[in-house]
Amino acid sequence: MGYGKKNVIKIDPLSYNIGLIGESGIGKTTIIKEMCEKLVGEDGYRFLECGKEDGADGIDGINYLNCPEWSMDYDEYTNSIGFEDFVDDVVENKSTEYPDLKTVVIDTYDQLIEIAKPEVIRMHNAEHPEKPVKSIKAAFGGYMSGEDKATEIVLDKLWELKSVGVHFIIIGHVKQRQQEDVVTGQTYTSLTTNMSMRDFNAIKTKLHFLGVASIDREIVQEKTGKKDDKKKDIMKGVIAKESRKITFRDDSYSIDSKSRFADIVPEFDFNVDSLIQALTDAIKAEASKGKKSIAELKKEQDAAAEKRAEQIAAVEESNKKEKELNDIKAKIKDFCIANKGKAAALKPLLVLAKEKGYENPMAVDDIDVAKEILALTAA
């Protein structure tokens, strides 16, 4: 048989990888929170405040967790957990503990990369105990291999979330940067990320939408009341008006934005309704190029999502049973090792296993039988 099928545009905006970068304090965290709550409700998202980011502190009601490190147990007092631990918990318990979770917001992506770096150093030292390192630049042979490994483990975890139907939104900061045109070699000023371009481009290539939040200022020249040495008025720039905006496409390439959807509105006022409208309109415009109506697509995709959720729940339950079985068998094994040579202690376990059709206790693959055998170890 031949493989492959035609792509169908997903109607839900949160089914896509979204990024929003912008000036500090412009309101990125607030607008993404508002968007998530309008689209999936209060339980449908989690903000992960990574590393030294603490933007959630000033926003009432935001559903968040602190992730100051890559790996750490949950601390109820500080509402903190390791990023890896949170992802693992979602993947293992999606249907039971996170049934409504649809999207995770990474605030900020550069801080997530930072907390991944100590983990990369730990991984290197575990794999190469004869050549331990203390710096990310020396990890895995150097020459940016350590930095690339940090990006790799971050993306792997984000894709684990996607495997159980949880997508991601990244937030980041910006700065003006001199860029070089790859064709002409000329330099130009661009409003882009404040993190390394290597790290940024690694995630940018994975995004369907990348918006840039900025302040649009109208500056007029006013007299200062002073004259220069040629008796001319000295002028100064004064802000006459300013407004916040989000850019998804900039034909001058002075704003480092992106959209994989051709019909995205290039720029709009900074407010949640305009943001949602821009995303949904672009998606619907692309979807309308197909043969099915938006209503038909939504109905089909909602049904498919329900079926996928059932499949995820079944896999989750199977994995939990397998883990429980392995834990029980590990305890049985420990008992057998501790009682090696003691026939009176071991014989009841072997007899019960054979009665149930197994060669020995470690061959048991039925959790109820395993529990019966384990109960004999406490007798």
List keywords for this structure.
379 residues, alpha/beta, 9 helices, 10 strands
Question: What report would you give on this structure?
Answer:
The model has no long low-confidence stretch (mean pLDDT 90). 42% of the residues lie in helices and 21% in strands. It is an alpha/beta fold and 379 residues long. Strand 5 and strand 6 (187-193) form a beta hairpin. The protein has nine helices and ten strands.
pLDDT under 50 segments (min length 5)?
none
How many β-strand stretches?
A: 10
Biggest beta sheet summary: 10 strands, mixed
* Rg over alpha carbons: 28 Å
Q: N-to-C SSE series?
A: EHEEHEHHEEHEEEEHHHH
Shape: elongated
Count of helix runs: 9
Span between N and C termini? 58 Å
Mean pLDDT: 90
Strand content: 15-25%
Query: From the helix content, strand content and strand pairing, which structural class follows?
Result: alpha/beta
* Helix proportion range: 40-55%
Topology:
Elements: E1 18-22, H1 28-40, E2 45-50, E3 64-67, H2 83-97, E4 103-107, H3 109-127, H4 145-163, E5 167-180, E6 187-193, H5 197-204, E7 209-227, E8 233-247, E9 258-259, E10 267-269, H6 272-287, H7 294-338, H8 343-355, H9 367-376
Parallel strand pairs: 1-5, 1-7, 2-3, 2-4, 4-5
Antiparallel strand pairs: 5-6, 7-8, 7-9, 8-10
